[in-house]
Write a structure and sequence with these properties.
alpha+beta; globular; about 120 residues; single chain; disordered N terminus; two-stranded antiparallel sheet
Length: about 120
């Protein structure tokens, strides 16, 4: 019985891993995208969709850390990977780069929504 339970759990873990691109955002019960740590993801109104570029660099990227993608990350459905000015790769959703907010302290925090009327929670 214990072996069967372990096999079922392993199979479920594999299915979950295949449900989204490696390291890509996931949806929470609150209806927003989060990173693998459960932290809320945001989009920036000044980033043009599908431009393949982030305009949040320097001090902006310190306060709004980009959701970094691995060097071998690949586009998958609505998720794409852009190249940042600093050479790093960043996840985007529907063409909009994704960020976290340095003031969010724990999973579920959404204190960045509406900041300066240009930051929005990323929603599927």
């Amino acid at each position: 019985m214990k072996l069967a339970t372990t096999a079922v759990l392993a199979s479920l873990a594999l299915l979950v891993a295949c449900a989204s691109p490696m390291g890509a955002p996931t949806k929470t019960a609150a209806g927003v995208l989060t990173n693998s740590d459960g932290m809320t993801l945001y989009t920036f109104d000044k980033d043009a969709a599908d431009s393949g570029k982030s305009v949040c660099n320097g001090d902006c990227a310190v306060k709004w850390p980009p959701m970094v993608a691995s060097a071998n990350a690949k586009t998958d459905g609505a998720y794409s990977v852009i190249n940042r000015d600093d050479g790093a790769k960043q996840w985007a959703y529907k063409g909009k780069p994704l960020y976290t907010w340095f003031k969010d302290q724990k999973p579920g925090d959404m204190t960045g929504d509406g900041v300066n009327n240009v930051w929005r929670t990323a929603k599927p």
